[in-house]
Amino acid sequence: MKVEFYRHSLDQNDIANVVDVLNSVFLTTGPVTARFEQKFSAYSGLPNVVALNSCTSAMQLALMGLGVGPGDEVITTAMTFIASATSVMHAGATPVLVDVDPATGCIDPAAVEAAITPRTKAILPVHLYGVMCDMRALRTVADRHGLFIVEDCAHCIEGERDGVRPGQLSDAACYSFYATKNLACGEGGAVATRSEELARQVKLLSLHGMSKNAAGRYHGAYQHWDMLTLGWKCNLDDIHSALIVSQLDRLDALWTRRHEIFTRYERAFEGTAAARPAVIGKSAHHLYTIWTAPERRDEVLHALQERGVGVAVNFRAIHLLTYFKDTFRFKPGDFPYAEAIGNKTISLPFYPKMQDCEVDYVAEQVLATI
Ligand SMILES: Cc1ncc(COP(=O)(O)O)c(C=O)c1O
Fold first, then answer.
1. How far is Cα 268 from Cα 260, in angstroms, rounded to an integer?
2. Residues 217-227 pLDDT 10s
3. Which of 18, 26, 242, 275 has its CB surrounded by the most CB atoms within 10 Å?
4. pTM higher than 0.85 for the full model?
5. CA 201 to CA 52: how far, in whole Å?
6. Does 152 sit in the ligand 1 pocket, CB within 6 Å?
7. Average pLDDT, the chain
8. Is the model's pLDDT at 294 over the cut of 80?
9. Would you call the peptide bond into 324 cis, given omega within 30 degrees of 0 as the criterion?
């Protein structure tokens, strides 16, 4: 049997929406993107949504829109995808990494507080694999020190913890609609925020700093546009929006199927050598990972591949990657919990299209190789 690591959940309706866009006047940011933004606002409960071309851009522009830039520090985690830290650098600020809760892999609020300096401007927590960070604790730390919070929600649209959903206790929630995400259109992202002013800034920065986008220029009598600030080019076009505008209606049903698969894996691994990270609250169920003995991780990884099981590693701790190590002089042992997870983690196939027999096959192969 061959079980792909990931298969998307697009249906014929999503594809028909793209064809409609291709047959319409607007290919770039227009009415379909506006409809997606409205629907995503309703789903997230956050009044202002700006659709963008990636979560990386979303985090960069949210930070810039809040005035974070050169000379400032932003605290984030060593157990994440590189974009959580590179987006800080693209905003002109310095990422300061801290260690994680060894049970969940999410940023440790006490480590955050210990890393605060007079230059700290913001905290950038990452809801790893779909489990939310302790946002109440992070909010308390942020309030005590007057810091912004920008959430990396690339893994977490549907999650909730302690009655808190993404964006409710922060300045901005940044989402990814990358090819393998819970809501996927190839490349895409969004900033969702309670602040109308921040959304306005992000929109401006996402389109060259221009006062009007193409759709705004097109309707009615021609109006001149102005350039108000130095911006970037990160808007989401209607072709991509067409794939997620209808997919969003199925988001909860897709979550329910992933929850069934999660439960099936958990039953198979209970009481075995396949350890797993803790789940606290409602996970968005983005990735399903197991922990092996660190010295056997790569052997298990390759053995699973040989048995037809698609695998990935999310993530090796980022401070030990060459660029960060060289730039910030990090060394092994700096963030021991993040390193330990990075050395033992394996991500298994985990998507709604998986059949029960495929889940069982993957679990059997894990138990045979671990
Ligand atoms: C935790 C995390 N943050 C940010 C990103 C970046 O998302 P995007 O590819 O939409 O920029 C990813 C993508 O994989 C991610 O896993």
1. 12
2. 777 888 899 99
3. 242
4. yes
5. 13
6. yes
7. 97
8. yes
9. no
Mutation test of ligand 1: which of 52, 56, 316 has the most ligand atoms closer than 8 Å to its C-beta?
56
Q: How far is the CA of 59 from the centre of ligand 1 (A)?
A: 10
Q: What b/e sequence results for 158-186 when a residue is b if at least 16 CB atoms lie within 10 Å of its CB, and e otherwise?
A: bbbbeebbbbbbbbbbbbbbbeebbbbbe
DSSP code for 208? T
Q: For the chain, what percent of residues have pLDDT higher than 90?
A: 96
- For residue 54, the ligand 1 atom closest to its alpha carbon is 10
> Which helix H or strand E contains 256, and what residues bound it?
helix 251-269
Candidate of 81, 106, 206, 234 to mutate for ligand 1, largest count of ligand atoms within 8 Å of Cβ: 81
CA distances from 96 to 82, 83, 224 (A): 13, 13, 42
CA neighbor of 167 nearest in space, from 129, 207, 133, 204: 133
At position 136, the amino acid (one-letter code) is R
3-state secondary structure of 264: helix
d(Cα 312, Cα 325) in Å, to the nearest integer?
Answer: 22
CB 288 within 8 A of CB 266: no
Contact 324 CB / ligand 1 (< 6 Å): no
Residues 259, 311: Cα–Cα separation, whole Å = 19
Cα(325)–Cα(334) distance, integer angstroms: 11
pLDDT over 80 (residue 214): no
